[in-house]
Design goal:
194 residues, alpha+beta, 3 helices, 11 strands, 37% helix, globular
């Protein structure tokens, strides 16, 4: 009987875990069929790639802005994944040797379709299993941006081949420019993110 209770407690603790914590009293939520969207108050700090966004530059997304942001996220998810992958391999400044540039292009060409296919699969199945937290802020060009963080309904783990290390399977952080209606993976935008 003790074993059953222990296993039950372990199962509930695994399902109840979150990848980050936030004071839910500082959010408004919108229930969508498979997940929730949380509009986060401007009073909550935004830690953006190691920098804090000042409170004077933050805003709480309205319900309409949050729904728009979520729709644009789902519409542009595959494109944002593919764009980031392209930029990762087509950045001449990151290579010391011209031969490395050619090898990177070959690697990109041979794996592009797989990346696109995986993103399409994730769009149909994976992203529905994440609640969304939308943090609003204004960039240096005075454009409204939404920083998107995702929290899984159930934490899943994966291991990288040959490492034996276990990692939590999460979605990366995305940034949506509300004014330009453009989504990108955080750090790979064609607009100012700060």
């Amino acid at each position: 009987m003790r074993l059953v209770i222990l296993l039950t407690l372990i199962n509930f603790s695994v399902f109840g875990q979150r990848t980050f914590s936030i004071d839910k009293s500082q959010t408004d939520s919108i229930q969508v069929k498979d997940y929730k969207i949380y509009s986060v108050s401007e009073n909550i700090d935004i830690n953006f790639i190691g920098r804090q966004i000042p409170k004077s530059k933050r805003f709480k997304p309205t319900k309409e802005e949050s729904i728009t942001a979520d729709n644009l996220f789902r519409e542009q998810y595959v494109k944002a994944c593919v764009d980031q992958y392209y930029k990762q391999f087509h950045n001449p400044d990151s290579y010391d040797d011209p031969n490395e540039i050619e090898r990177a292009k070959i690697t990109y060409e041979s794996s592009y379709k797989r990346i696109e296919s995986n993103a399409k699969k994730d769009l149909k199945k994976k992203i529905l299993n994440y609640d969304r937290y939308f943090f609003g802020y204004i960039n240096l060009d005075n454009e409204k941006l939404i920083l998107m963080r995702f929290d899984p309904h159930k934490i899943k783990y994966y291991s990288l081949p040959g490492t034996g290390e276990s990692h939590i399977d999460v979605l990366t952080i995305y940034v949506l420019n509300l004014d330009k209606k453009e989504l990108s993976m955080s750090g790979w935008a064609d607009f100012k993110e700060d």
